[in-house]
Write a structure and sequence with these properties.
The protein is α+β, with helices and mostly antiparallel strands and 932 residues long. 41% of the residues lie in helices and 20% in strands. α1 packs parallel to α20. It is globular and about 95 Å long.
């Protein structure tokens, strides 16, 4: 073992407090709900659905937990008030992993319960159905089914009713129990009708230790000492609003509470001071969304609380009245958290608060229409944050984070339409993808823009009020929007909103709008094809495409006029002069790409290079993103992309740079380590040089806008990556000073300073940064520091760091939350080729590889292999990978090995492809062009 590794692990040991090892005793699987994918065909197995003979009206739930001691077992009882609507001899509900101990069925007559049966439960584990077979036929009427059961808090998967922990100020583990029921996991906490349209009211009570507290969707109604044990108390909550089972939530913990206006926030005691921004953002956002929809949240619910769950990643859940978040999505400390964390918190809060209307007040009828929940929440996650904080320009980031992000995965043949049915729990979980979120949010924003925001809001209010406290399908939305534009010419005269929108919601993928100019007649031929990134396939589907255009003579980029392409192709007369460019899809409002003839592309490129400000910054980002993806799909000469990227030299707006950054990273990954890498470095140098000289890499002017901070990180990252000595010197100086003085750099430059400062870190500095991560109680800061540690260029330091991820050889508990262990590997292989080499060397030991699979599980190992292959560009690097395969043998599954080798071959083949040859020729000649 290297001397530094021994010393480092010793330092780790000294930094830790001895405790029970948290490593699992056996290899455990991943939650099946998460790992399954949607069936490729639309055929679904309806046997997973509940029969329609009975429906719930109310649940009375009681739970008892000793989670304060870390115990997983819990006891529960539920009284399901139900109506039989068709005579039947059985009651069927959903159940997963709960052990039923007793069941009694009562008939309700004149508000009096009369026991009529003790049905025997029959459990179908595959379909997660629990059948109570009755001794007699049940007539139409009201009944109560009382069920007692036992369960276990989930440990490995944060779903259903699960256990988490945090460490208090004395480094002691403090446990809590929380819930995550969407989409099909309420059945893991109590037997229920676990389908979204089967709404009911809920009364919840929880018995827990008196040093703990319980929170739920509704305010506390009573808190009384437990009659069986004075060390316990029972918290009972008020009866809830009518809602779906997946929106029920409760948390048992020792958390503290703060209030702001009419809102509450709960967090662990040693993080409660980091909730100020989330409280403020919640209050502002809820007010703005209430004004926007013209429907007050408090018309339906008496309170709204947010709660930060430790070690739950960065996700969140919109439970009505109690929104749950992973800590990085809610906690903000201005001394250590970056502008990115703050932006993430603002948009996640707005997303979850938008759900209070879209999903909670009106719920999707079935998961087939999940975009009615998630698409609206994605759109208003950004628009709601924009309304609350207009100065931050969050809707600018919508173009990058949502629209352009969706276009990528939606360009494959395997993508699905927005409307897509599902039945099994695995299929349903698979629907929560970028189609449901980013694509749907983008399509909805397109129609918001086309119909006009005022008409859109009128339609949404109609939709929400007509379906309040009930379920909806897409037809309900279409009808409401149709009523809002009655008598107005917002869509083609012969069409309805339903027809127009269904051309998008029922079709997989999206179109490319082809624009071919006749420069003599000033006519255009518009045509549409399905855009596929990796192949060309005929498609007879016609999208009804709204479009507009701007040209050099009239560079109007306002969103005030729309035309429609409702056929595969059409001829259009425009007045654009032959020597003038034109641009379609102003401000990229539409969810599609645009391709032009070569002459128009050349005029656009020339204008982008000479006077970028002549084109709206949204469209500059669009042109770069469209050109890059069209070129990769062999629909455009890649030379257009390379020339267009040179426009970034004098572009100081973040959006075009962010679009260009995707192309530059793509080229970096292809060229690193090859003969053309030096030419690429020079190319990037000419792009960033002007902007870099205007930046201060290690300090922050508090007047800088959000987008300026994004741009600063992007430019300084490239400067350090390609070896700017000044960038590397300044980051190391700031890094060393922070370590030496035990201070922190400004959080908004911390990502670059810590990563590139770590390039020259001494062993002592490396250990100090590890200890800083170890001692941090802030999840976002811990992630930033883990990523920074992965930036080290010392093989010994990286080897020691990787060792901590599995605890091998340490002999004591390593202070990681479970998700952080795999993050260590990701940080190392993502940072540089040095990190990839360190990971290969680390895994090139059978025992270490076996330990990694044991502690981090097979999928993490497989992902590491795929990541190494993706970063393999040379024969020498391929030989390293082959040696690793020889060492680990069958631990690397055959399909993983074959996929990795195919990836490497693809990397090699790229250089002899047309795209690779064009890039090589461009870079060979570029220096001469610049000097000339």
């Amino acid at each position: 073992m290297a001397l530094f590794k021994v010393a480092f692990l010793g330092a780790v040991a000294l930094a830790l407090v001895a405790g029970e090892l948290r490593f699992p005793l056996g290899k455990t699987g991943i939650d099946a709900d998460v790992k399954q994918t949607i069936a490729p065909l639309q055929e679904v197995d309806e046997s997973y659905r509940l029969p329609s003979d009975s429906v719930p009206t109310h649940y009375t739930i009681h739970l008892r937990t000793t989670v304060h001691e870390g115990d997983r077992p819990f006891q529960g009882s539920v009284e399901i008030h139900l109506n039989v609507v068709n005579p039947t001899d059985k009651i069927v509900v959903n159940n997963r992993e709960l052990v039923i101990t007793s069941a009694v069925l009562y008939r309700v007559q004149d508000d009096v319960l009369a026991e009529i049966d003790r049905p025997v439960p029959e459990n179908d584990e595959t379909r997660q159905l629990l059948t109570f077979q009755c001794a007699m036929q049940l007539g139409v009427g009201a009944y109560v089914l009382k069920v007692e059961y036992n369960g276990n808090l989930q440990r490995d998967s944060p779903s259903g009713f699960f256990r988490k922990y945090y460490r208090d100020e004395n480094n002691r583990d403090r446990y809590l129990a929380s819930t995550q029921f969407e989409p099909t996991r309420a059945r893991m906490a109590f037997p229920c009708y676990d389908e979204p349209t089967l709404k009911a009211t809920f009364t919840v009570s929880i018995t827990h230790h008196k040093t703990y507290n319980a929170v739920s969707n509704m305010p506390v109604e009573a808190l009384v000492e437990d009659t069986d044990d004075p060390e316990f108390v029972t918290t009972t909550f008020e009866k809830s609003q009518i809602m779906s089972t997946y929106l029920l939530a409760f948390v048992v913990s020792d958390f503290e509470t703060r209030t702001y206006g009419m809102q509450l926030i709960h967090a662990r005691p040693n993080a409660i001071e980091e909730t100020a921004f989330a409280l403020e953002a919640g209050e502002k956002t809820l007010l703005e969304l209430s004004l926007y929809t013209d429907i007050s949240y408090y018309n339906y619910m008496p309170k709204l609380a947010q709660i930060a769950i430790p070690d739950w990643g960065s996700g969140a859940m919109e439970n009505w009245g109690l929104v749950t978040y992973g800590e990085p999505a809610l906690l903000f400390n201005p001394e250590i958290n970056t502008y990115r964390t703050k932006k993430g918190i603002a948009t996640v809060i707005a997303h979850e608060y938008a759900h209070q209307w879209f999903g909670n007040l009106v719920t999707t009828d079935w998961w087939k229409y999940i975009w009615l929940n998630e698409g609206f929440a994605t759109l208003y996650g950004y628009y709601g944050a924009h309304l609350a904080y207009p100065e931050e320009e969050y809707m600018d980031l919508f173009q990058l984070d949502v629209l352009q992000l969706a276009l990528g995965p939606d360009s494959t043949e395997a993508t699905r339409p927005m409307n897509w049915n599902a039945a099994t729990p695995g299929e349903i979980s698979g629907l929560f993808d970028r189609v449901a979120y980013e694509k749907s949010g983008s399509v909805l924003n397109m129609f918001r823009t086309v119909l006009g925001d005022a008409n859109w809001r009128t339609g949404l209010k109609t939709y929400l009020l007509s379906r309040q406290l009930a379920a909806a399908t897409d037809d309900d939305l279409y009808a409401a929007l149709q009523s809002a534009i009655s008598g107005k010419r917002m869509i083609p005269d012969t069409m309805t909103v339903k027809e127009v929108m269904e051309s998008w919601t029922n079709a997989a993928g999206y179109p490319v709008l082809n624009v071919r100019r006749n420069y003599q007649s000033k006519e255009l031929i518009l045509s549409q094809d399905r855009f596929l990134a990796d192949k060309k396939l005929p498609s007879d589907h016609v999208w009804y495409i709204p479009y507009n255009l701007a040209d050099q003579r009239d560079p109007n980029f306002e969103l005030n006029h729309f035309l429609w392409l409702t056929t595969k192709a059409a001829k259009v007369l425009v007045g654009t002069e032959p020597e003038h460019w034109l641009i379609f899809n102003r401000q990229q409002f539409g969810y599609y790409r645009v391709n032009y003839d070569s002459r128009n592309w050349e005029m656009l490129t020339e204008t982008m290079v000479r006077t970028p400000e002549a084109i709206h910054h949204y469209n500059r980002a669009q042109l770069i993103d469209d050109a890059f993806n069209l070129a990769k799909a062999d629909l455009l000469d890649f030379g257009v992309v390379l020339r267009m990227l040179t426009s970034l030299t004098n572009d100081y707006d973040y959006l075009p740079w962010a679009a260009g950054n995707n192309a530059l990273n793509y080229l970096y990954n292809k060229l690193r380590g090859t003969e053309h890498y030096e030419g690429f470095v020079y190319y990037v140098h000419t792009l960033i040089g002007n902007i870099y000289t205007s930046l201060s890499v290690v300090t922050v002017d508090e007047q800088e806008t959000l987008k300026q901070r994004y741009l600063k990180q992007l430019i300084s990252t490239w400067a350090c990556r390609i070896g700017y000595s000044e960038c590397l010197d300044k980051t190391h100086e700031a890094f060393s000073a922070a370590v030496r003085d035990n201070t922190k750099v400004h959080p908004d430059v911390a990502t670059v300073v810590y990563c590139y400062g770590m390039h020259r870190a001494t062993d002592e500095e490396f250990v100090a940064m590890y200890k800083r991560m170890f001692n941090s109680q802030n999840s976002a800061e811990r992630t930033l520091l883990i990523d920074a540690l992965g930036c080290s260029q010392s093989m010994d330091q990286l080897d020691a760091f990787l060792t901590t991820s599995i605890g091998a050889g340490v002999g004591i508990e390593v202070n990681y939350f479970e998700a952080e262990r795999s993050r260590v590997l990701q940080a190392v292989y993502s940072a540089s080729r040095t990190g990839v080499d360190a990971l290969i060397k680390f895994l090139d030991d059978w025992d270490i590889a076996d330990d990694l699979i044991y502690y981090l599980e097979q999928p993490v190992f497989n992902s590491a292999i795929a990541a190494i292959a993706a970063r393999t560009n040379t024969e020498q690097e391929l030989n390293q990978l082959k040696q690793l395969f020889a060492t680990v043998g069958e631990m690397a599954p055959e399909n993983v090995v074959s996929a990795a080798l195919e990836t490497v071959q693809s990397n090699f083949d790229w250089h002899s492809s047309l795209e690779g040859v064009i890039v090589a020729e461009f870079l060979e000649k570029y220096a001469g062009w610049v000097e000339a």
